[in-house]
Amino acid sequence: MRIISTIKASCRDCYKCVRYCPVKAIKVTDGHAEVIEDRCIADGRCVTICPQNAKKVLEDKGKVQGFISKKEKIAISLAPSFVALEEFTDSLQFIGTLHTMGFTYVAETAEGAEIVAKEHLRLISKDAPLITSCCPAIVNLIEIYYPHLLPYLAPVVSPMVAHGRILKQRYGSEIKVVFVGPCIAKKGEYLREEYQGDIDAVLTFEELLKIMEEQGNDYSTLKTGVFDGEGSRARAFPTPGGLAKTAELSTDLLAKESITIDGLEECIEFLDKFKDVKDSLRLVELLACRGGCLMGPGIKSELSLYARRERLLRYSQNEPVEKARKQVPQYNLDLSTKYTKRGRDLLFSPSEEEIRKILAKTGKFKPEDELNCGACGYNSCREKAKAVMEGMAEIDMCIPYMRAKAESRANLICGMTPNAIFVVDSDLRILEVNPAAERKFLCQQEQVVGKPLEVVINPGNFEEALRTKSLVTGEVSYPTYGIVTWQAVFYVEQEDVLIGIFADITMENEQREKLALMKGETLTKAQEVIDKQMRVAQEIAGLLGETTAETKVLLTKLIKLIKNGDGQV
Q: How many CB atoms lie within 10 A of CB 129?
């Protein structure tokens, strides 16, 4: 089941998710970016940075709404980072809102964090460093990309899983446990086979707010509430160093033998050099999100990290929010877990010859041709070439190459076309002329660039195109240059320039004039023939008319003589 998927209709050729994905788990096919499941660590950065909102996160909103509609008993495990939500400035009011929404119990995930921190403290030894296992994105990172470091990863479940087990024991196994937090990777964690039955659904804060909105809750009128459960001292857990603080590690250990690293790039850099420092450390706290869970991808908030941290510290020290701490009951919890190497073998080492063949396809034949600009999303041209060979990237993702190719084609077309082309700015000053324009209008580009168009041709059609912002076409004669053109002039708003394309129709015009002359001469000759024929016909008709009349008179007399000598019968 995909935790993060792509809405292809919204995905465009920006490669921003490739650029920001620290493990390059994005495959580009036909210009669309697809998350590769067996490479993805579900840190969610591609979701937050996508400018087209083309990344979709697996939702449990419908599932939770189903629990509510069926009036199931539901226990919320609420991550302390909820204080970063701008919608609520009052923690008590937020808790009260959750109670009114149909959630039976609202408890702090910090309860689980507290016992997880203590378990880490128990496992710390002086023989080998221990990497914390609370961040699921870091667990994914090590399982997929650093499996050789799995022996150092603490075999301890996360606070979410631990709290889920606590709630199931506290309220009964039939209770539905819904974790609410800032983390997308939690959605993959709770679906792991070894955690089935511990957590029934995972909501990001964004999903929870959508449910609140759909229910039509008016936050300003809702009553305040308090957490169910025993309370916890682990509310600062979401901040870097929160685990160490919760475990109440000594100052000396913090200063000398433990380290906290937040931010995926920083964590990756540390893991790459882990062998160089492992002998000097005992506890390594790694957090995928820079700033810790307070900056998780499941929180949409304009608050800065510092404002969020200030809210968390104030909340963690706010006594009225926490119930009077009672004797904490002892739960029979199994906090252990196991990790396995997963995903396909990611080691891919193409030969130098294979890399050079790919580089050559994008016009990179020498080291100096490799710009390493990162526009494709990869850090270097060679890294991108490897991705092409793996089927993770496409050749035409090289933007400088495609631009040069487009410009080359455009220049080739402009240079080879028999049509004259003028490019002028909105002040009708010449920006560029192509070779055909130089030949037909007897000018040189270096001599006319920057000068008014009128020094070469009449700018009338250009003025009309600029005024109307529409295509202006027509036949124009230029006696000075001895040519006649059919021209099209149009305005390019994005560049604020006018482009005129002139097709030389001088020969066609001459042929048209010759054809018109021939037609005129032919018509004259034809008219002369017709007139002559009419005269002949008229003369013949006249002669025939006279002969006919004489014949009629003679025949009449003959008839009369035959009838009688004097013409009587």
A: 21
